[in-house]
Write a structure and sequence with these properties.
With 296 residues, the protein is of the alpha/beta class. 34% of the residues lie in helices and 25% in strands.
């Protein structure tokens, strides 16, 4: 089959990343060891991941009319992402994520900025794009009501809808039930379990557990796919790589187990370089990795 058409409805941020030997305690100042800026945002990250794997990717989101916004648009253009659904917000700053790398993991504070203007009315402007997509994926760095509108439009047009409930937030049962797949990490799964009877979601759940791999459910029984042993440099964006790769595989009509193996491998490759998007692999790289690890 040809390229799957994937539309990402979500955030576009600039990442401000500092590496340190440890995380500071409250009131403590420490010296960092490295600093860099990098394109990010869960929406943009997932779009880049899917595009590098060969999907036709469309982005729906907002940037500010600032220098970060211009840089983010240029970067996505270089990744062959279609940007007709991205409009700058006048007199607004672009979203930023302040990321601390320490102790082999990351901590992140996100400022929404222009992402707040990805409103339900704005999403509706691009209904025709959602209608023609094979898969739509969204996250929770845009207004929750916009996520709900995306779910409604996907259901209306019978478009596969992947909900990545990150960062954790209160969600209606309605939007959860409209999703074809829900992809929380462990902490996000805990939040979901307080909002809805988990048994209603088992056939939709794909739980990413970092070094412990991925869990999906088959006939209500958990099935685990183990993680790959790799040299980890930066885990920022690993979950987004998984989601973009999972969306690509589902768009290619793969079954859930195959899609999880593919996405798990993509995420393992992504953590071996600094930056959310720097290590996101191509399809050839993922396929070679799977061959070398006993998967086709």
């Amino acid at each position: 089959m040809g390229k799957p058409v994937i539309t990402v409805v979500g955030s576009i941020n600039m990442d401000l990343v500092v590496a340190a030997a440890k995380r500071p305690e409250a009131g403590e100042t420490i010296l960092g060891e490295d600093f860099y800026t990098s394109p990010g945002g869960k929406g943009s990250n997932q779009a880049v991941a899917a595009a590098r794997l060969g999907a036709e990717v469309h982005m729906i989101g907002r940037v500010g009319d600032d220098e970060f916004g211009s840089e983010l648009l240029k970067f996505m253009e270089k990744e062959n992402i279609f940007l007709n659904g991205v409009e700058p917000v006048p007199h607004s700053a672009s979203g930023v994520a302040m990321i601390t790398l320490a102790d082999g993991d990351n901590s992140i504070i996100v400022y929404q900025g222009a992402n707040k203007e990805a409103t339900p009315d704005y999403i509706r402007k691009y209904e025709s794009l959602i209608a023609k997509s094979d898969v739509v994926i969204t996250q929770l760095e845009i207004p929750i009501e916009s996520v709900e509108e995306t779910a409604r439009l996907c259901q209306k047009h019978q478009t596969k809808f992947i909900l990545n409930p990150a960062p954790a937030a209160d969600l209606s049962v309605d939007v959860l039930m409209k999703a074809d797949f829900i992809t929380p990490n462990q902490s996000e799964r805990e939040t979901l379990s307080k909002q809805v009877d988990f048994n209603q979601l088992l056939d939709k759940l794909i739980v990413t557990e970092g070094k412990d791999g991925v869990v999906y459910f088959e006939n209500e029984a958990p099935r685990r796919i183990s993680s790959h042993s790799v040299s980890t440099v930066d885990t920022t964006g690993a979950g987004d790589t998984f989601n973009g790769a999972f969306a690509y595989a589902i768009g290619m009509k793969k079954d859930v187990e195959t899609a999880c193996h593919f996405a798990n491998a993509a995420a393992a490759l992504s953590v071996q370089k600094l930056g959310a998007q720097a290590g996101m692999p191509t399809q050839d790289e993922v396929n070679e990795f799977l061959r070398n690890h006993g998967k086709k």
